[in-house]
Fold:
Amino acid sequence: QVQLVESGGGLVQAGGSLRISCVASGHTGDIYTMAWFRQAPGKEREFVAAISGTARIYFTDSLKGRFTISRDNAKATVFLHMNSLGPEDTAVYYCATHCDDLGPAPECHYWGRGTQVTVSS
Structure:
């Protein structure tokens, strides 16, 4: 079993930046791909980015250049750095791991409960 806990969400003004984190515990390992997804109100969940245990990265095209993903294997933590945020980025952001692929639509076995990011205009 793996538990994932996201943190760092909140309210930010348009144009601002935010870093959200996800800490994994349980049967974690450096080899497992970790990923971020998000779900905006009234929309389906969408893939954001994933990072492998060897730091290979896959990003959804629309977010390249504004978001970056990183991980600290020693702390079993993955980060999502978000810049130039706009109201369209308002969503619940979910962390996931034990994913079968990097992208563009990885299937992941374990999920966190999410952290809310709200961008005001």
Q: What stands out?
A: The mean pLDDT is 94. The CA atoms of residues 51 and 120 lie 29 Å apart.
